[in-house]
Backbone:
């Protein structure tokens, strides 16, 4: 009897479920909204799990009894104390198969790392870094951002850009094209009006503005270039901490770059690579291209001792094809 494997990616904005057979052929997909318990509660997480997994099973034409292993990457599962309620939520699926729950950074790592282990570094709106070695020993940071000195996501980059504008305005730092860019963005008449408007919430400059900092840096603005170099170095220090925790300093491994900030190119990745290589010269920087949910499927397969290298390529291609089909065909993957 053919075996099937379930992967689930629970996110803060959307959640995916993917089912593949033991040969790596994706056969079922489901997508719903946010499932992070910090936003929807554990009851909401259960509803998301039931909905997206149900969609995937209906598309695949299988029953829960056909699932031989499942991997769950869960945004919001950050601390040991959250494992029990996370597993309790997963138990609503009533799977008669081994399951493993990890932070969602880990499934991105497994999806992107050729060997299935290494370090996953996230920089989108916020930032995070987790890793595991060949034996799945975990290394991590808190994922709580600036409170614990962990930088830099898009919000941090924008914040530093606003500081640079204030430094120029009050003669504390050099001039920068970021000032005019932010005035144009908000419609503020001058820097003082910008600061008043930000303080009184008349103007909003949020993390989604980070591409503007890249644009100004590409024009040769030294301040913007410096901010992006700082971001790369800070992200590298998070990665270096995880590398040391799991003893990868002298090994060859994939450092998987996950998130929109890495789309900005070498202004971030060059200083990141230089600093990481000062600690771990064997680190290979890899941009995540595969859907993260495929990492969940691979974890499920590992639980049944399926060698990932034999199915990885087929899984990645078939998952991408199936998800494109779901996006372009009304009702496919939505349970409608």
Residues:
């Amino acid at each position: 009897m053919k075996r099937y494997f379930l992967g689930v990616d629970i996110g803060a904005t959307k959640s995916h479920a993917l089912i593949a057979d033991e040969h790596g052929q994706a056969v079922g997909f489901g997508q719903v909204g946010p499932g992070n318990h910090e936003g929807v509660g554990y009851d909401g997480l259960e509803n998301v799990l039931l909905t997206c997994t149900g969609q995937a099973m209906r598309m695949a034409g299988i029953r829960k009894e056909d699932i031989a292993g499942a991997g769950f990457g869960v945004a919001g599962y950050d601390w040991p104390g959250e494992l029990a309620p996370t597993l309790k939520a997963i138990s609503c699926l009533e799977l008669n198969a081994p399951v493993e729950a990890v932070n969602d950074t880990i499934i991105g790592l497994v999806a992107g790392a050729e060997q299935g282990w290494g370090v996953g570094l996230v920089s989108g709106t916020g930032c995070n870094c987790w890793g595991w070695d060949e034996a799945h020993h975990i290394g991590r940071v808190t994922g709580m951002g600036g409170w614990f000195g962990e930088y830099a996501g898009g919000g941090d980059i924008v914040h530093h850009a606003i500081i640079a504008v204030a430094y120029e305005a009050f003669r504390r730092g050099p001039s920068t094209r970021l000032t005019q860019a932010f005035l144009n963005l908000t419609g503020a008449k001058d820097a003082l009006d910008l600061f008043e408007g930000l303080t009184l919430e008349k103007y909003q400059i949020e993390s989604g503005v980070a591409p503007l900092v890249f644009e100004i840096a590409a024009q040769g603005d030294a301040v913007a270039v410096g901010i992006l170099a700082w971001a790369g170095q800070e992200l590298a220090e998070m990665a270096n901490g995880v590398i040391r925790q799991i003893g990868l300093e002298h090994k060859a491994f994939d450092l998987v770059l996950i998130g929109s900030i890495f789309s900005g190119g070498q202004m971030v990745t060059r200083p990141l690579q230089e600093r990481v290589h000062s600690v771990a010269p064997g680190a290979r920087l890899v941009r995540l291209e595969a859907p993260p949910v495929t990492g969940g499927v691979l974890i499920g397969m590992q639980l049944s001792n399926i060698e990932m290298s034999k199915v990885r390529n087929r899984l990645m291609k078939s998952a991408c094809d199936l998800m494109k089909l779901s996006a372009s065909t009304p009702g496919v993957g939505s349970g409608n």
